Amino acid sequence: MLIETETTPNPATLKFLPGRTVMDNGTRDFATPEEAEASPLAEAIYALGDVTGVFFGRDFVSVTAAPGVAWSSLKPDVLAILLDHFSAGMPLFKPARAGFSVPAEDEGVTTDDPADAEIVAQIKELIETRVRPAVANDGGDIVYRGFDKGKVYLKMQGACAGCPSSSATLKSGIEQLLRYYVPEVTEVRAV
After folding, report:
1. Which residues lie below 8 Å from residue 162, measured CB to CB, with a gap of 6+?
2. What is the reported pTM?
C-alpha cells in the first residue's frame, strides 16, 4: 500500500492520501486528544505526542504538527500508523459507549430565520459546490454554521483551522464569492 503526502497552505499540516475512501460521507475534525478517543486511528496519531490536530476527509487524513515539530521526524511515524490501520482494515470509529458520543454534524449551528430560507439555500449550495471542494484540496473543510443579518458564519476544519492564510481565504475568497452571487451577504466570519 502506498500513501501519498501533500503539503497544504498551512505549513504545520500535511495531507495523507491512502488511495482509498477514508470517510464515506461527511468529514470529522479531532481538535483535541479527548475528541480523538472516538477513533482508533485519530487516537494513535495523537499518541505520538507531537500532534495538535487530526482531520478525516473523504479520501485523505490531515495531520497538524505541534509548534516547533519538524515534519521530517514526525512524518515516518504518521505514515506507519496510517499503513498499519488501513492495511489491517481497522474501523475508523470505535463503537458507541455509554456516556461518549461523536458530536453531531450540526452541533454549533445557529438557528436561521425561516424568512431567510432562500438566501440560506443559495449560500449552502455555493459552499457545497464551489468552496468545499477547493478547501478539501488543501486538506481541510469548511462548514456552514449560520446566517444572521447579512453575516455568514463558517467553521474552518482540518488544515484550514489555524492556517495563517485562513482569514485571507475567508475574506478575499469566500466572502467575495458569496457577496457576488448572494447580494444579501455583507460579511463572512469564522466561528
Report:
1. 10, 12, 53, 64
2. 0.72
